[in-house]
Specification:
Layout lengths: L13 H4 L1 H9 L7 E5 L8 E7 L2 E7 L5 E5 L13 E3 L3 E2 L6 E2 L5 E3 L18 E7 L2 E5 L7 H4 L3 H8 L6 E11 L3 H8 L5 H4 L1 H6 L7 E5 L2 E6 L21 E6 L3 E6 L3 E11 L2 E11 L5 H29 L21 H15 L1
Antiparallel strand pairs: 1-10, 2-3, 2-5, 3-4, 4-9, 6-7, 7-8, 9-10, 11-17, 12-13, 13-14, 14-15, 15-16, 16-17
Helix pairs in contact: 5-8
Length: 362
């Protein structure tokens, strides 16, 4: 590998500190990748809708009478008023400005006095739809009309997750925990995507959940796949058999650029969703799930443990890095890429930074 002769250096600080880089990412990367929108169980019934934002655009997802979820830009095709706010249920989409109505398929239905307009052809008016996919009950959208399906971006991730979560169709969110971090989203994503810092910084995770010596992260298309053996199960920080335990493995699937599925031993699903709120701020949303969304002491306990340990430990790391990236004294250092990979190697960062550089520089 050439990295040994000339070590690859970490990305220049400007990628994390320059508002112009963030603007380019908003218009390009975030509008051309698969982004999490809503959980399908939040729009379970025909007519249920939920508004959300991606790449600075307001959109909404709605379940049609045919049971299909569709996603649209949240803008009326008359004179551009916003159509829906928050969540709710409706028979048709009614614009609050002049009461034009749309079917749940996005098709224009009626508008006051439009019949008086010579040549008015409602059949040609439709809300602007965006590509969406349901991925194990998670609705993802891609603003790129030419987007390749998620299977092409993240080969085999769906099948692997289904094997880890045979009960996925029954899972619903039990708890969302928002964690604001004062750093660029890429600092947070990179921190998630290497375990070189785990043994020193995450004692609970490194002794109570995984065996760091066996931790590895490998690319699978634009998915970064984390695998590890778990610790002696008697050392686990929770009783894995009290939930819906079907296997005792830990695994994670990071879907570039801003979402990750993690399965803890005992089939405990939890997710990371990064929302970039500015060039130097990000909110990490941790999702925790249970069967039918029913109360679960184990899930609540894991969510609290994770918030108080791994998450808390990471906040200090990423915020310190962001400050350091602003320092005139910082010269990007070589990445520690071990040809044998493993927990003390940053090969995963090498892949991520290549994707990050490409997103900005083309
Ligand atoms: S802008 Fe929506 S009806 Fe006029
Ligand atoms: Fe960490």
């Amino acid at each position: 590998m050439t990295e040994r002769a000339t070590p690859q250096r970490s990305l220049d600080a400007r990628y994390y500190t320059d508002p112009e880089v963030f603007r380019v990412e908003q218009e390009g990367l975030l509008a051309r990748t698969w982004q999490f929108a809503v959980h399908a169980s939040d729009i379970a019934n025909p007519g249920d809708y939920a508004a959300f934002e991606i790449a600075g655009e307001c959109l909404f997802a709605v379940r049609g009478r045919d049971g299909e979820v569709r996603c649209f830009y949240n803008v009326c095709q008359h004179r551009a008023h916003r159509l829906v706010q928050g969540t709710g249920n409706t028979r048709v989409v009614v614009c609050p400005y002049h009461a034009w109505t749309y079917e749940l398929t996005g098709q224009f239905r009626a508008g006051p006095n439009t019949k008086s307009v010579t040549g008015f052809d409602g059949s040609k008016i439709c809300l602007t739809e965006v590509s969406c996919e349901e991925f194990l009950g998670f609705v993802f959208v891609n603003l790129d009309p030419e987007a390749e399906p998620m299977e092409t971006w993240f080969p085999n991730a769906r099948a692997e997750l289904e094997a880890f979560l045979p009960h996925w169709a029954t899972l619903k969110p039990l708890e969302w925990i928002d964690i604001p971090e004062r750093c660029n989203w890429k600092v947070s994503v990179e921190n998630y995507s290497e375990c070189y810092h785990c043994t020193l910084n995450h004692p609970t995770f490194a002794t109570g959940v995984v065996k760091p010596d066996t931790y590895d992260i490998q690319p699978q298309g634009y998915c970064l796949r984390h695998t590890t053996e778990c610790n002696d199960l008697s050392q686990m920080s929770y009783d894995i058999n009290s939930g819906h335990a079907l296997n005792d493995k830990y695994s994670s699937w990071f879907l570039w650029p801003m979402f990750s599925f993690q399965v803890y031993p005992g089939n405990l699903l939890n997710t990371y969703h990064w929302r970039a709120t500015g060039h130097d701020t990000v909110t990490v949303c941790r999702g925790w799930y249970s069967v039918d969304g029913v109360e679960s002491d184990i899930v609540r306990q894991m969510a609290v443990q994770d918030r108080e340990t791994t998450v808390e430990e990471d906040i200090h790391l990423v915020e310190s890095v962001q400050k350091g990236l602003m320092s005139r004294g910082y010269v990007p250092g070589p990445l520690v890429v071990d040809p044998k990979c493993g927990v003390n190697s940053e090969h995963s960062i090498l892949h991520l930074q290549n994707w990050m550089r490409k997103a900005v520089d083309g």
